[in-house]
Amino acid sequence: MFTIQQLETWAKAVRLSLCVVFRNNLKSRNVLLLFLGATAFFVVVLRQWHSPSSNAKTAVQRVKRQFSNDLAAFNSLIRERFLPFAEKSNSPDSLKTAFLACRQAYKKLEPFAAYYFPATTRLVNGPALPEVEAEDGAVFEPGGLQVIEELVYPAFDPARRSDLVREIKKLQRELLRYTDFWQDTELTNAHVFDALRLQIFRIITLGISGFDTPNCQTAIPEAAVSLSTLRTYLSFYGSSKTEGFAALDRLFQQSENYLTTQSDFNAFDRAYFISAFANPLSSQLLAYQQQIRIQPFNEVRALRTDAKTLFDRNAFNPDFYTPNTSLRSNPIKVLLGKKLFSDPILSAGDNPAGGKRSCASCHQPDRAFTDGLSKNATLNGRNFIRRNTPTLLNVSLQSAQFYDLRSETLENQSSDVIHNKDEMHGSLERAALLLQKNKRYLEAFKKAFPNFSNRIEPIHIQNALAAYERSLISLNSRFDRFMRNEGDSTGKPVLTTEEIAGFNLFMGKAKCGTCHFLPLFNGTVPPVFTQTESEVIGVPIKPNRKQIDPDLGRYSLFALAQLKYAFKTPTVRNIAKTAPYMHNGAFQTLEEVIDFYNEGGGKGLGIQLDQQTLPAEKLNLSPREKTALIAFMKALSDSDSPVPFSSANR
Question: Residue 257 sits in a domain of what CATH number?
Answer without folding.
Answer: 1.20.1420.20
